[in-house]
Amino acid sequence: MFATAALAAAAAASQAQAPAVSDDVVRLGLILDMSGIYADVTGKGSATAAEMAIVDFGGTVLGKKVDLLVVDHQNKADIAAAKAREWYDTQKVDAIMDVAGSAPALAVLEVAREKKKIVVFSGPGTERITNDLCSPYSVHYTYDTWSLANTTARATVEQGGKSWYFLTADYAFGHTLQASATDVVKANGGTVLGASRHPLGSSDFASYLLQAQASKAQIVGLANAGGDTVNAIKAASEFGLTKGGQKMAGLLLYINDIHAIGLDAAAGLTLTEAFYWDMNDQTRAWSQRYYDKLKKMPNMSQAGTYSSVMHYLKAVQAAGTDEPAAVMKQMKSMPINDFFAANGRIREDGRMVHDMYLFEVKKPSESKRPWDYYKLVATLPGDQAFMPLSKSTCPLVKK
Question: How far apart are CA 3 and CA 398, in angstroms?
Answer without folding.
Answer: 9
